[in-house]
Design goal:
Layout lengths: L13 H14 L4 H6 L3 H14 L6 H14 L3 H13 L4 H8 L6 H15 L6 H9 L4 H24 L15
Amino acid sequence: MSRLPTIDPATASGAAKDLLEKTQAQLGRVPNLYRTMANAPVALEGYLAFRAALQHGQLSHRLREQLALVVAEANGCGYCVSAHVFRGTKIGILREELEANRQAEASDSKTAAALRFAHAVVARHGAVSDLELDIARAAGWSDEEISEIVAHVALNGFSNAFSHVAQPELDFPNVELVQHA
């Protein structure tokens, strides 16, 4: 059971109802995390607006999922790791690749550099070194793309933090967190 109540889209009213219907239309379902965010419609609205804005950026859908996964793993968010492994497989990312992504690795060196940079942003609360920024640039990431990577870290960090507080019931196949040494 969630620590914050889940709002049922069928009985919601006002802004919460509108936002949950929008979520249903966008995702084809309303995950429990979003149902708990609906306790404060402004929180869900802000999250959905930020997410929607980033979908129009330079980063591919595939990379956005991979970034969400590395951030969720780094933040120890089991709900979000489970959700992004599920979504990653739905868009065709192989399970082995997703497992590597969780540890900031990828079969493609440019993607690996993006994931390592995102992991550094999480681990250092944004205070990355000049060297880490130079490595991302050397891998071929533009300043615009690097800025988007940071934005994805922030977006997913919000959902991870919200999940930690709300503890929504898991509505995706469970994926255990990797234990970091």
